[in-house]
Amino acid sequence: MPTIYLIEGPVGAGKSTYAAALALRTQGLHIALDEWFATLFSPDRPEGDFIAWYIARKERLIGLIWAHAHKVLASGTDAVLELGLIQRHSREAFYQRVRDAGHTLAVHVLDAPLEVRRERVRHRNVEQGPTFSMVVPDHVFDIASSLWEAPDEIETGEHAIEFISPQPS
């Protein structure tokens, strides 16, 4: 039975690099929300307060990715999803979707110290290599980092969550 791998962690933790490698190992399909988001919505991003704008589009895009993941799983292929579910309530809603659909779920969480992540993101902004989707300015990095809620004892007790130590950059 194919598996949904949910890859989560704060910005700059190494999720994209890890997810791409996992997809190769499992012969799965890596679907990264940021990649889709940048292509579909970034040209229309407002100059000022963009949080509400971002959240509305992210929710619609997660629905689209979920529908696509169903097709991937139906083909017998694993889906390696990188969705940016940085808060527990968002992950819980996703866990419920997976349960309701009867799919197998494996959750992998990556993290790294704040300053390591900040430097990775700054480097990625300049290099624009294989894991680059969009420029993440320092103030956006700070907002996203402050919103990250690592899985706690309750969440890890209720779900099969594996904490991954990413490779140093």
Query: What is the CATH homology-level superfamily?
Result: P-loop containing nucleotide triphosphate hydrolases
What's the helix-strand series? EHEHHEHEHHHE
The assigned structural class equals: alpha/beta
Number of helices: 7
CATH class: Alpha Beta
- The structural domain count equals 1
- What form results from the Cα inertia axes? globular
The fraction of residues assigned to DSSP E strands is: 5-15%
Arithmetic mean pLDDT: 94
For the secondary structure, the number of strands is 5
Q: What is the makeup of the main sheet?
A: 5 strands, parallel
Instruction: Quote the distance from N terminus to C terminus.
Output: 34 Å
Name the helicity range: 40-55%
**Strand arrangement in the largest pleated sheet:** 2-3-1-4-5
Architecture per CATH nomenclature, i.e. the level-2 architecture: 3-Layer(aba) Sandwich
Gist of the model:
This protein is α/β, with parallel strands linked by helices and 169 residues long.
Notes on the structure:
- The relative contact order is 0.23.
- The mean pLDDT is 94.
- The protein has a 5-stranded parallel β-sheet, with helices on both faces.
- The longest helix has 24 residues, at 51-74.
- It has 169 residues and is of the alpha/beta class.
- The chain contains 7 helices and 5 strands; from the N terminus they run E-H-E-H-H-E-H-E-H-H-H-E.
- It is globular and about 40 Å long.
- The protein has a single domain (8-164), classed as 3-Layer(aba) Sandwich (Rossmann fold).
- It is 52% helix and 15% strand.
